Amino acid sequence: MNAHGQPPDQLDRRSYLTRVAAIAVGGIISVIAPVAGLFTFLDPLRKKADARGLVRIGSIHSLPHNGEPRKLPVIAEMVDAWNKTPDVPIGSVYVQKTGENTVRVLNAVCPHLGCSVGYSAAKSGYFCPCHRSSFSLDGKILDPRSPSPRGMDELHAEVKANGDVWVQFQNFRKGTADKIPV
Ligand code: FES
Q1: In which element (H, E) is residue 130 found?
Q2: pLDDT attached to residue 53
Q3: Residue 98: in which H helix or E strand, if any?
Q4: Tell me, which fold does domain 54-168 have in CATH?
Q5: Nearest residue by C-alpha to atom 2 in ligand 1
Q6: pTM value?
Q7: Whole-angstrom Cα distance, residue 105 to residue 57?
Q8: Helix, strand, coil shares of the chain as percentages rounded to 5?
Q9: Confidence class for position 40, pLDDT limits 50, 70, 90
């Protein structure tokens, strides 16, 4: 008999089984964790959007009729191997009403080196404070001395029947003349 009032071999068998179970669980975790981490690395964060990758950013009814752009955040649900996080800001865009049911959406990031581009109503254009690139309202390079190798990145957008504006949000490689998705 031992201190627990049990025969020694019964206690030994129980502690042996406990140890085997702990090793098995530890082994399973040590296999699952790197595999999950690998998937997270290969596909780090996925934006939850509709089936075609469109994210709702607002309503056309809230945009000025004179075509003045509004800067809007792009909010999406992010999903990784472990978590589902709602309402994560993934970028921002300038949205302009260009017609009764049409909009122009530009990524608000400068294609030169990624600074946030500002809008000037007085100059009717966009200006990057970092290295002075300037862009017209349709996103084209305004001043030819602008260091940006391309105009602002226009994004595919759709206006639904109820006026909701949906955008296919995408970032592109900085510093290249070509628009290369990243
Ligand atoms: Fe905009 Fe350089 S980052 S001009």
Answers
A1: none
A2: 79
A3: strand 84-99
A4: Rieske Iron-sulfur Protein (2.102.10)
A5: 131
A6: 0.72
A7: 10
A8: 20, 35, 45
A9: very low
